[in-house]
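Order emerges. One example.
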Amino acid sequence: MKGTVTIITGAAQGIGRAIAELVADKGGDVAIFDVIDGSGVCDTIRSKGRRCELYTVDVSDSQTVQAAVDQVVKDLGKIDNLVNNAGITADKLLLRMKDEDWDRVMAVNLRSVFNCTKAVVRHMLRSGGSIVNISSIAGVMGNAGQANYAASKAGIIGFTKSVAREYAERSIRVNAVAPGFIRTKMTDALDEKAKESMHAAIPLKRLGEPEDVANVVYFLLSKYGSYVTGEVINVNGGLYM
């Protein structure tokens, strides 16, 4: 990925940070879109000799996204790749779920993918590129208490396949990755009984690491995935097959 420029949303921590650091390890420059401070990630990337720019962006707002994407082109010269990783949860059983719980999750998880992809594709029409959307195991098999989250992640899959068909002739590849239970701050906060239950349900008997997801994303961004588009790759230790 030497010399490439990749926008990664939600890259200040967790899976997004692991993707950003791996892209830098492979020679790429990174633009981070996040609403929290990602300066630590940029410091790490710059220490690797790569460029990193940080933009405070509410990815659910189309005008803010368009302005940020245009600024990336000014600052870094081009856009080769996009990783739509930003996401939130607001878990509740359906009868307890409020309109705002539904709307906010849809805005951050799904509308953001529309906003960022639309803005970036304009800059990829001539030279092509790779877009990777982070879905979830919840989007392919559902999960009780996560109707809003699962619907948003399932929507990402339908969006991915549609846009892949639209822009394949322009050499723009669009794929999705659906992680299962990944070790992040969210899973670290679970009690030991919950963790044991998750381990028992996963055929590989462990939680995934952010790097497990980052490795698959890198494959899709790089030349190794050059003949792959419109696919959903599950990274879940065999929990869903």
Notes: The beta strands are 5-9, 29-34, 52-56, 81-84, 129-134, 172-179, 232-235. The chain has a mean pLDDT of 95.
